[in-house]
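Thought: the user wants the 3D structure for the chain below. I'll pass the sequence to the structure tool as-is, report back what it returns, then summarize two notable features.
Action: structure_tool
Action Input:
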Amino acid sequence: MTQNDKTPTAGNGEACGHEKPGLLERTLEPRLFAWRLPILILFLLASVLFGWQAAQLKPDASFQKMVPASHPFIANYLKYEAELRPLGNVVRIAVETQGKDIYSRAYLETLHRITDEVFYIPGVDRGNLKSLWTPNVLWTEVTEAGMVGGQIIPQGFDGSPEKIAEVRANVVRSGRIGSLVAADQRSSIVLVPLLETDPDTGAKLDYGQLSQRLEKLVRDKYGKDGVRIHITGFAKVVGDLIDGARAIGLFFAITFGLTVALLLWYSRCWRSTLATVFCCSLAVLWQLGIVHLIGFGLDPYSILVPFLTFAIGVSHAVQNINTMATARLSGASNMETAKLTFRQLFIPGSVALLCDAVGFSTLLVIDIGVIRELAISASIGVGVIILTKMFLLPILMSYVGVSDACLRHQARKQASRHRMAHALARFAEPRFARMAVAFALLVLGGAWTMSRDLKIGDLDPGAPELRAESRYNRDSAYISGHYATSADVFVVMVKTAPGECGSYPVADKVDRFQWEMENLAGVESTTSLFSGMKKVIAGSNGGDLRWHALSRNRYVSNAAQRVLPSELYSNDCSMVPVMIFLADHKAETLARVVRAAQAFAAANDDKTARFTLAGGNSGIDAATNIVIAQAQTQMLILVYAIVALLVWWEFRSWRVAICIMLPLYITSALCEAIMARLGLGVKVATLPVIALGIGIGVDYGIYIYNRLQHFLDRGLDLKAAYFETLKGTGAAVALTGVTLALGVLTWVWSDIKFQADMGLLLTFMFLWNMVGAIVMIPALAALIVRPAGTRPAARDEVQARSHA
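Observation:
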């Protein structure tokens, strides 16, 4: 008789860990193993379908998905999107000369070619494109004959010294130095507003393709021969994120290789390792295919979900390998061990995966498209893992079993003295339990104190999604250092009755509002229709500075308004945008501006004018920060409440729920403390980390307490029961933590900073949740869980076996 043909005897049924199956297991198990071949064929057909769908996935990003579309700020902005487009989704191309200044024939001709090149790039709002060459950028001057003006670069420009001198004079007269021309006059800007959808085809703007065209047609083509190109803007950030995400394939390959090596080292079995990796890879394939079927793409945030899907699948499958090896060592056949694994792990594994799904799904309360897509994609991944790990893996293992090398390795582990298990089991003693809990509470207090410094939003200049040394942030630093008008623009929309936007009552309020904003810390300057109107009125009166003021005379103000660009007010003259240029887009700056603007609006709004927030890139950032601040507490309450409810449903004890949930809370507090110390704000990239850490971290506690309860029910005292738990499940739980950490650790080397930040924080949470579960669960159980009566015979039997 071969070992595969052996069946467990009555005497070794306990050793195998046989459980009394519940109704669900009794219903599913016989059908699952009786229909193994048809189920495998069904999985194969589904894999072909989802694989075909996954092959069609493409990078996807959208400006509107990155913002909280239902927030009042965004709703107000979208209402006037056409008028405010030059202040929102805009690319700035700074063309820097390596010569003395921009006033040379070679530079101006290069700028002309760049302007024409950009004009024909799909997605550009050509009517609002601006550079020194475009007809919508004018100069004006007061002369004895009145006001005169024209294009900065005149018609018939031939590059002669006379024309160059004329351009120099026109730039000064235009007042564009500091906005369209650098303060040192060694560079100028091409301002490129974008259309989110093509008006002819209705196709969405492809940010990745747009970024590639800007690089190829502008930077690579013209960034030579004495010219240097700097490009900034939301679209360029997204394009660089998509480029950086291309390295994800390499990171996944490294993670895959490390995981295979770790599983092989743990199990010493190629069969179970390959079966596990196959099932988890299949889960990734299914997840990607389903994501494409429901109409999603891969944006820079959700592209990380396949890593989590693979890591979660492997971490749960470790429990299958451990249970299979233990049962086979006791003499069970492959089929019997597969059935035993299903019975023993189906409920705790399913509950743990449901907790994972809860952690992801609570992100749906955050009204930001990319976070909601991440939540849906990750929840799909967890659902797929339930199918592949709970149903497909036991079927495969019933065929392949485990190798003799695995059984020999398992026998060596069982024959070892388990020094680590003995040491950790002491935390189940009241004396050591009190010490562990006291230390944990001290850690919690320290973490909570440090986490009070945690901020909402971005805390760094430039694009914090990218590394400080990235080309984008170098370009951003150049433009910020050479131009007076910041790229961080906060827009307040002043609503009036149609045709009344230029009236004196409106002008007076806007003028007072600008004065208050300009005296606010973090505000560099402001501008509006009435800023230009003052200059025009003064210019119409011989340039006398005494006339540099608002006029109550409607004829005067109307005449001045007609001279000014139409972008300074809406088509029906019912809205005037006030542009507030900020020193940065840090959370504190944005919050200060929002408070001041809302306070002014509350005190001054009436039927003549209403101050409405907010547009511009900084207005959108402010709305995002507000949504995240509101959703943070709501999300945490939801994830803790639902996970705790699932844990209570599994173990029917609120004391057990506390034992499992308290270590998670301590880890969350530590994570927030680390974020505060590292200068990471709570934002779109980091907020999901906490929910993911809680949902996935609870897996350790569920698996540990499930086995602990099994030994307690057999009559062992807590210390002996925990020792037995650590001998079997403890090593698997430790490997689970390491596997999950490996799944995200490679992100730390990503060129995309927010991916690196998420990888660092998730690695910490996965490992610390594992340590917290192993140490804190027995300690808390020793103090708050009421011990059941023990059976001395069972206790003596286990203790004698462990000493043997």
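Final Answer: Structure generated. Residues 72-240 form one domain. Strands lie at 90-97, 138-143, 146-151, 187-193, 227-233, 489-495, 523-527, 575-582, 610-615.
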